[in-house]
Structure formats: C-alpha cells, structure tokens
Amino acid sequence: MPVPVTIRIQQADFDIAREIAALTAGRTDIGAVVSFSGICRGSEKGEIIAALTLEHYPGMAEAEILRHAETAMSRWPLTGLTVVHRVGRIIPGENIVLVLTASAHRQAAFQAAEFLMDYLKTNAPFWKREESAAGTSWVEAHDHDDAAAARWTKP
Fold first, then answer.
1. pTM value?
2. Quick one: 69 exposed, middle or buried, by C-beta within 10 A (0-12, 13-18, 19+)?
3. Dihedral angle, C-alpha 110, 25, 85, 33, nearest 10 °
4. In sequence order, what are the residues at sequence separation of 6 or more whose Cβ sits closer than 8 angstroms to the Cβ of residue 43?
5. E strands of 45-111, at which residues?
6. Rounded Cα–Cα distance for residues 141 and 63 (Å)
7. Which CATH class, in words, describes the domain spanning 5-150?
8. What is the pLDDT of residues 30-56, one digit of tens each?
9. Domain locations along the chain
10. Which terminus of the chain has a lower count of CB atoms within 10 Å, N or C?
11. Which three-class secondary structure state does DSSP give residue 6?
C-alpha cells in the first residue's frame, strides 16, 4: 500500500483533529500518530508581537517539503504523513504549522516528526516578518535551530 502523503500550504486555519482523522481513516496498520503544531507566540524576548506574516515561494515550497517528506519516509517506516503550513498574516494564538507522522510504532513517528520540523524551521522556503510596537522586521535564523537540523545529516 502506498504511503499517503498530504502537503498543503494555505492561508486558512486547520483543524488538527480533522487532519488526524483524515490520515487514519480506515487504517489498521497505524499504531502511532505523532503531531506537532506550531502556534504563533505573543511575545519574543520580552517584546509583544502583534502578528507574523509568512511568505513562501509557491510551487518551490511544496516541492521542497515533499522532498524532505520522501527523505523521512526512506529513513523511517512511516504509514502516513501530513504537513500543513500556513502563510499570510497570523496573530498570536493562531496555528502556523502542523506535522503529522504515522507509523506502526511510536519511535519512527516521533523521529520523523522531529526531523521534518527541524527542516521546516531551518531550510523550508518561507520568510517570516514580525509586527511589534517597534515596527516590522524579518526574522533571522537561530543558531540553535541550525544545530538541531544538523544532527540529521548523515556523514
């Protein structure tokens, strides 16, 4: 049975329970679903954030996420995978990203989800701009995110 993969980039919010139900509907080969949902914070380093605006390169972003999804499927015995990433203006408390990984056993699902989130945080073609009382600014990559992603690199 082919592994179902769903990758969507959208402005609209998503329903986590509905996405899990879609991934697992009618399936008896799934013993674990790991979910990660990223939510817009209301502050960063003590500064209030009014909103984030996420931009992407249409077509390229989906292809790059699919490429990393295929890597995850080749490294772990997954039975399903979903990535939903929002773009546009997002206010604190709203969903930004969802990664679901399904497998017969939990370890593969946990590791694959972590691998995908580390990729999305560091290398996916998205650009993030913060709005605060001080104005707007583009968000730079963080060293700790790069270090987390580097651990998945095979020598």
1. 0.89
2. buried
3. -10
4. 49
5. 47-56, 78-86, 88-90, 95-103
6. 21
7. alpha beta
8. 999 999 999 999 998 888 999 999 999
9. 5-150
10. C
11. strand
